[in-house]
Amino acid sequence: ERMVSVPDFSGMHRQQAAETAGKLGLYFLTAGNGEISPKVTVTGQSIPKETQVPVGTTITLEFTDMTARD
Questions:
Q1: What is the pTM of this model?
Q2: Which of 10, 21, 51, 53 is the most buried (most CB within 10 A)?
Q3: Phi and psi of 14, rounded to 5°?
Q4: Is residue 65 within 8 Å of residue 32, measured between CB atoms?
Q5: Using an 8 Å Cβ cutoff, are 33 and 65 in contact?
Q6: Would you give the DSSP letter of residue 7?
Q7: What is the DSSP string of 45-67?
Q8: Contact, 12 vs 26, CB < 8 A?
Q9: pLDDT tens digits, the chain, 70 residues: what are they?
């Protein structure tokens, strides 16, 4: 079974995350803000960066609109 290192998805928008995950053979689920926008970026991930996982692993990525204000 081939293993890959989980990248740091922090700050990536959805397209960047999809391309990065795809190149490594990883999948991701979206949590948080579901909008597809360059302003909506990854603020958390379910598997820490640099963790070795099998190809085909699914990671949950938390997306947040960084322009939103409380």
A1: 0.90
A2: 21
A3: -55, -40
A4: no
A5: yes
A6: P
A7: ESS-TT-EEETT-EEEEEEEETT
A8: no
A9: 899 999 999 999 999 999 999 999 999 999 999 888 889 999 999 999 999 999 999 999 999 998 866 5
